Amino acid sequence: MEIYQKYQIQQYKTIFLNLKQTNVYYFLKSIGISENHIKNLRKNSSSILVNGRFATTRTKLCMADVLEILKSPNCATKTKLCDGKLEILFEDEDFLIVNKPSGLACTPTRSHFDMNLGGQICKYMLPKDPNFVLRILNRLDLDTAGIVVVAKNPIAYNNVKLEKEYHALAKGNIYKNITIDKPILTKNENGYNQIKREISENGKQATTYVEVVKNYKDYCHIKLKLKTGRTHQIRVHLSSIGHPLIGDKLYGEKDDDACHTMLLLKNVKLTNLPTLNSVELQVNFPDDWQTFLDTNA
């Protein structure tokens, strides 16, 4: 079954008027389609339609035209399909947004091959798009809960802006909003990247903005926004200032009252750049957060 993505050229008026040439190829390039994707479209004579008729990448476009291309000309993601109920927060033709619980890996790993979010999403999408390619825009750590955004096609993947707000419970009290600007290094030993990251002048630039929500007796509730998106960035940065996340055994210490790292991607604003359509989503605090707060108030 071939599934097409439809584009009304009129909706991309500004982009279209600035094209070097007004054919299908230049339009696709202007909205973020890669050369590899276009190459795969060319291999299939029925992969491009203009106003319902088969076309090629050289076909001229007009403002009133409707362009359709195969959503997934590439091979479908080959991963084991996993059972599990997805908590879907939003879905349209371009994006699928779900709420990931703590303890569920985003993608298959050796220790999470039979149960992971990617496998659940691929199973959900199979009847909708047999050629579905898994494109997760924001992977969360195993312990981190919250919003995960999936692009259903490469155009959406390459033309989206995500604004994210994390919430966390951290050791100790923080009395004012702060900015942590410290480079993060991924160490490599014997050709393998190490899981644990560290602060180092040789690392990549990373900036985290911390806003205090409330201080408790010996911990605090904070909100965080990232200027960059390094692996373990929040965990490394908070540990570096003496306020590791509660439950973070890698960068802090084991906590008997928390069975996992207390980090949640709570709020997301997604903007589809070609159309400027946006959606704002938020999730509730997980039950174990409330249990922790009730126990340690």
Give an overview of the whole structure:
With 297 residues, the chain is of the alpha+beta class. Helix content is 18%, strand content 32%. The protein has 7 helices and 15 strands. The strands form 3 sheets. Strands 5, 6, 7, 8, 9, 12, 13, 14 and 15 form a 9-stranded mixed sheet that branches. A 4-stranded antiparallel sheet has the order 1-4-2-3, with no helix packed on it. The longest helix has 10 residues, at 287-296. The mean pLDDT is 90.
Distinctive features:
Ubiquitin-like (UB roll), nine-stranded mixed sheet, alpha+beta, 3 domains, Pseudouridine synthase, 297 residues, single chain
Q: Based on the coordinates given, report the CATH architecture of the largest domain.
A: 2-Layer Sandwich
> Strand-and-helix sequence, N→C?
EHHHEEEEEHEHEEEEEEHEEH
Distance between the termini: 55 Å
Number of domains: 3
List the helices and strands and how they pair.
Blueprint: E1 4-8, H1 13-17, H2 24-30, H3 35-42, E2 48-50, E3 53-54, E4 66-70, E5 88-91, E6 95-100, H4 117-125, E7 145-151, H5 154-158, E8 160-171, E9 178-181, E10 184-189, E11 192-199, E12 207-215, E13 219-226, H6 233-240, E14 263-272, E15 277-282, H7 287-296
Parallel strand pairs: 7-14
Antiparallel strand pairs: 1-4, 2-3, 2-4, 5-6, 6-7, 8-13, 8-14, 9-12, 10-11, 12-13, 14-15
